[in-house]
Amino acid sequence: MTTDPIRSALAAAGCTREDARKIALRCGDHVRHRPTGEEWIVAWAEGSQMAPCGWPPCRASVADCDVINRASDEEHRRSVMGWWSSTSHGEDGRRAQVLRLYAAAIGEAARDA
User: Fold this and answer.
1) What's the number of CA atoms in the CB half-sphere (13 Å) around residue 9?
2) CA distances for 10 relative to 4, 18, 22, 90, angstroms
3) Could you give the strand order of the β-sheet that contains 60-61, starting from the edge strand earlier in sequence?
4) Residue 30: which of 80, 79, 75, 71 has the closest Cα?
5) 23 Cβ contact partners less than 8 Å away, ≥ 6 residues apart
6) Can you give the pLDDT at residue 1?
7) Model confidence over 76-109: pLDDT tens digits?
8) Are 13 and 21 in contact (CB under 8 A)?
């Protein structure tokens, strides 16, 4: 299991697991969904809800997820660009949600290209 550097830093500062859980998830982060025990890659997260990549599409409560690994800025941009270039997820809404939430990452990737 990969150590979450943000959670480690929070623990060193005396923050609790609940404090760590409140940090927003973003596209590309890896989480463990406690009710199922599955490891998921985050497609999108907003407020108290998130959706994982993969099939079948679903939504889950952010409160039910523990961060395994936070995506670096580069990993985040690559994940968002993967959704941007995908044509296979048009019907379940995840692609549209990723593009709405993470448009800045697409702009950064285009600028850096």
Assistant:
1) 5
2) 10, 10, 11, 38
3) 60-61, 49-52, 38-46, 30-33, 65-69
4) 71
5) 6, 10, 67
6) 45
7) 999 999 988 887 655 688 999 998 999 877 776 5
8) no
Phi then psi for residue 78, to 5 deg, are -65, -40
At residue 96's C-alpha, the angle toward residues 24 and 7, to 5°, is: 15
Q: Which of 36, 64, 69 is nearest to 49 (CA)?
A: 64
Give the closest residue to 101 by CA, choosing from 67, 65, 58, 50. 50
What does the chain come to in residues?
A: 113
**For residue 50, which of 74, 75, 32, 72 has the smallest C-alpha distance?**
32
CA distances from 91 to 87, 88, 102, 106 (A): 10, 8, 19, 21
